[in-house]
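Tutorial handout. Part one gives the primary structure; part two gives the three-dimensional structure as C-alpha cells.
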Amino acid sequence: MGELWFVGLGLSDERGLSERALDALRAADRLFAEEYTAVAPAGTLERLAARVGHPVERLDRPLLESERPILQALRVHARVALLVVGDPFAATTHVALRLAAEGAGHTWKYVPNASILTAAAGFLGLMHYRFGRTVSLPFPAPGFAPTSPLEQVAANRDRGLHSLVLLDLRPEEGRFLPAGEALRMLARPAPGAPGIEGTAPVAVAARVGQESAAGWFGPLDRLAAVDFGPPLHVVVVPADLHFEEAAALERFRVR
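Part two.
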C-alpha cells in the first residue's frame, strides 16, 4: 500500500512552499499537480520540478475527479504526492480523493498552506470570524442564471456577515471570470429582484499572495467598471463594518 501526500502550494509560486513540503515532494516516487481549483503563476511547476528533481504531472479536472491516476500510482509506488494551489483541503474534491485512498487501504499525510478562504479577508483587513457561507459564482451561459449565489449573499448580509465570492475558472480554456463581470452579475437588475444595489459597498482582491496583489473598495456600480488586471480575482460583499474594518478598507477605496 502507498502513502499519499497532499501538499499545499499556497497563493504564490514555489517560494511559498515550506521546507517540510519540499522534503515531501523530493521524497515522492510520483508527483502530480492540479490547477483547476486555482492556477499557479506561470513557470512555477517547471521551476519546482527542477528544484525537487522530479517531473510534475499535471492533472485536469476530469482526471483528478476520476481518481484513477492517483490510485493507480499508489498501487505501485510507496509515496505519491499531489500538489495543490492554495490549501489542499479547501476543495471538497481533494477530501473525496483522500477518502478513496483510505478506502483502497492507503495512508495519507497533509501539508497545509495559505488559502484564499482566509487570505482575502486578511489582505483587505476584514475580520475572519465575521464571514458567512462562501459563495461560488459560475460563468454565465444562455439559459443558465442561477439565483442561489445572490440568495446566499443576501442571507449572509441579513445575519450581519460578510460574503467571500469565489469566481469560476476554466484554466484548460484560458478562461477566468473577471471581478467586473462578477459584480455586474451580482447587481440587482430591478427593485425587488435578488441582487445587490448599485450603491452598496463591495471589495475586490486580485492576485492575493503575489507581488502584484491589489485591492479595491467602493460602490458596486463604480467597481464594476474597473479593470482589475490579470487573474485570479475574488469579490467580497461586506455587511456592516466594524470601525477597524472600515479604516482598513479605506486604503483600497476607489476615488
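Part three, for discussion. DSSP finds ten helices and twelve strands in the chain. The chain has two domains: 3-111, 116-252.
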